[in-house]
Amino acid sequence: MIEVTLPALTFLTQIVLGLVTTNPLMHSSTLDTHEELYCLSLNAYHEARGVDFDEMLAVSQVVMNRVDRSSYSTVCEVVTEGPIRESWRTRQDDTLDDEERVYFPIRHRCQFSWYCDGRSDAVRNLTGWEDAVIAAYLVYNGYGEDRVDGALYYYAHKRIAMPKWAKTMTVTAILNGHTYLK
To answer: Is 10 contained in some domain?
Structure first.
């Protein structure tokens, strides 16, 4: 049985009833949609689980804003952005081709902290994951309005003080768990 939160179910019901329509500016591409949705869902899950469904929609919107307004061509490029280093195991083997080499993100240097914090990225909360998948699907397909007014960045204001990089930016929205900026 699938369990989703009430806000997620309400939003889906509004779509089915035709009360919410797709955004004509929605992201469209010939990319692997399953991989793109997986990356967007994983980011929503790790960045906003435990806050609320609106927050999952908002962090997903930031990723899509970055895809639409920058040099990134895919959601996965946005989510996994950051410096990488080659594994010590493959670095020692001169016979390996480039495709066979293994790379890891450099710890605490990524755009999204969960991606390179050194912890497992496994999904452990099924209800949170289901909400993240629904939020990612809705945002990727252009349903609803841009809750973050074009924001390209955010930070968790309940966990950290305003970062130095955010001081020169304009706040576009403040939700329950994050402050959004551009």
So the answer is: no
